[in-house]
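Support request, please re-run this one:
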Amino acid sequence: MGAMKTRSASVGIWVNEVVSFVVFCLLDIVDYLLCLLYKAADYLLEAEWKPCYCLSPKKLITTSRGNILFPHNNCESKILTVSPLQQLSGRSKIELEEISETLYSRPSLLSDLSKLSVNDLTKWLVKVTRSHSDCGEIKISKKRRRTIMKSSFTVVEMLQGKIRPQNLNRQVSRWSDCDCGFCTYWTSTCDKDLFVKTQFPKGNSGNEDVLFIHGFISSSAFWTETVFPRLSKSKYRLFAVDLLGFGKSPKPADSLYTMREHVEMIEKSVLFKHNVKSFHIVAHSLGCILALGLVAKHGGSIKSLTLLAPPYHPVPTTEADPRQYVMKKVAPRKIWPPIAFGASMACWYEHISRTICLLICKNHRLWQFLAKLITRNNSRTVNFLIEGFMCHTHNAAWHTLHNIICGVGSKLDSYLDMVQDKLKCNVAIFHGRDDEVVPVECSYNVQSRIPRARVKVVENKDHITLVVGRQVEFAKELEEIWKSSSC
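Re-run finished. Output below.
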């Protein structure tokens, strides 16, 4: 019986591998054709060619507005730019920002296969046969890695006087983005801050502040529609932000959505604007990475750190391409399970993911209307989840996914070590046992770097239902954490 199960599992793995290879080879071709289609459409509808990451690095860099890409230490790329967010904050100086090479270096499956040696192929076949979890993850040879790095880093010299701050009001969105009042809400505001939903005690007498940071393709409603109502009688001032590029917050078309931009906008819109001196942080998924970025700058002000489903994939010290490693963990190019297939299309294919945004995000009002019809307008939860999932631009999602989840996510060790060594605040971690987006192992990986962190795995809950559906219990758990941290 045991042998039969093992044989069936091996057959299933092989079927998944073979079908995935065929499907993703076809998607490589489709993405290339969509690239040509979007170039023509962008020119016809916006009278301007739009550079994409399919171009060679040199062509991409020289056609991008105000961006200079050049090699840095440890094969990390740096970009010299006048960021749109610098204009928002009244600055025009040139700064350095780290970006992830996964934006422009995502080799196709056929390219990977063509570079494999006989020994590499043999090792891969053995790995597929023996592994159930990490099967089929093709390792690029060292020669291939050197080729990618060499072709990806190009030095472009530009005079500072030629780089001008960008006018955000000139181009609110692309033709393929939604231009409804909700998605362009930020254009009607004067300060161009993030959209922040607040909840203060009566008389604004709260003496402790809490910052809530949502996850990828979500919004502040993830907190305000679940936890906030259960904390209405608490003594805390609550702040929930729509991250840059999501919800009602600004969606600058030329932003690279780096860690610095995200963190600075949170500082400007919450910490500085509301005179927040010390605070608790509650963060979900992608928000956990940004929370660690805030901790790095405001360590002495953090009273407690609560992380939900932190996407931490430790990178082996022998791994030559840390960001590529994390990208393959997040998006393994498999058709099964379905969540892996969706993540792979969003992460590996720039133009396919733009098409998905065109169909879903640009038409989110239609999908919300249909959802209301199906649920007879009785499900507020479905409505705010759809709103958070669909109200963003492709540019924001694409760059945040690569620059934050793959880029910063590949070097979280230093952030976690800093929390362990330099901070004394309480660290609590929650994870749903059935989470297929971020494996439970990620939370235990965080605990391995921060031994004092308390991990709670909630049975029969996934990435969303970890909060949605158990908000009453979760609100009580949060208050206990904050209370113990204030003692």
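DSSP finds 18 helices and ten strands in the chain. The CA atoms of residues 33 and 351 lie 9 Å apart.
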